[in-house]
Amino acid sequence: MVLEKSTKNSDIRIKLARYFLKTEVGENLISVRDLASLFNLSIGLVSETINEIENAGAVKIERRGYRGSVLLDKSIGKLWQISENEPLVISHTLPSNRRYEGLAAALKTIFINAGIDTYFIFIRGSRTRLNALRDKKCHIAIVSQFAAEGLCKQDEKISLTLPPGSFVSEHQIFLNSPALDPKQGLTVAIDPDSYDQSELTKFEFNGNPGTVFKKVNFMNIALSLRQKEVDAAIWTRDDMEKEIGREFHNRELSPGTRQKSLEKDTQAALVIRSENSVLDTLINEMVNIEEVLRIQHEVIEGKIIPEY
Question: 62 to each of 49, 50, 59, 69, how far by Cα in Å?
Fold first, then answer.
């Protein structure tokens, strides 16, 4: 019986913590009687558990007698600890440039400041990061808006989209010789694990006579160009900036390709499992887009050292 009571107490703590997470400060609370009916538990147990959560500093409630109760304040970090009892895990692309580092640093700063332990796992390729989300190896997968719209399944959702330039500055065509014409038959690098890179490459080069696609891990794009294993590749300007004009020559994507991507390849999207409504609420309550961009910009400019 003690074990049964302990399990019930734990379950009701989780349910109430999730309820408080989804309730806005200043909002009227459901009555204890109605909560007890909703959870099929005794009024006494529900009342006792609310008091425990309040005494732990997770919520502050104003009781107004017959007028009901109002949520005056809440600690998102403490409520997350009660409801999930684990750190927040985010999968992100490899931190190969300051823009990626800045995004990671910004999100970690926001969640840590709210009292939520946050860890990143760095995984190459948007498809692989979304698979990590499906396998429940992470709570959030960061991909581009373009990849999210192309790859998300029905049980996944885009919780938040950041503005253009938040994921990459832009994708460009990189050539190992200025004399090469992208419309002629070229050997072109393609990385199937990267939705953005592979789709943009197909948009840009499909239909060009004599084009040959060669599978290349995006981490090896610069090396493959340098060793002339490929003639051309589409990749991010952020990662290739230092090589432009020295070893490689860059060109803008064609208007047709840009029209298909609509800059969504440059926007960061936070993807979660659709069932996780608590996390969806948490992200949209906590993540201030202007603050994310401010921190990211300071990392890009070298004004702060990123911690993630």
Answer: 16, 12, 10, 6
CATH superfamily of 171-262: Periplasmic binding protein-like II (3.40.190.10)
Output the CATH code of domain 2-83.
1.10.10.10
Kindly list the strands in the beta sheet with 171-175, ordered across the sheet, starting from the edge strand earlier in the chain. 212-215, 187-190, 232-236, 171-175, 249-252
Q: Which residues pair with 73 in a beta bridge?
A: 60
Does the domain made of 86-166+267-300 have the CATH classification 3.40.190.10?
Answer: yes
Question: What confidence tens digit (pLDDT) does each residue in 112-124 have?
Answer: 999 999 999 999 9
- Residue 194 reports pLDDT greater than 50: yes
CB 225 within 8 A of CB 186: no
Reported as a single tens digit per residue, the pLDDT across 240-262 is 998 887 789 999 999 999 999 99
> Please, are residues 58 and 75 in contact by the beta-carbon 8 Å criterion?
yes
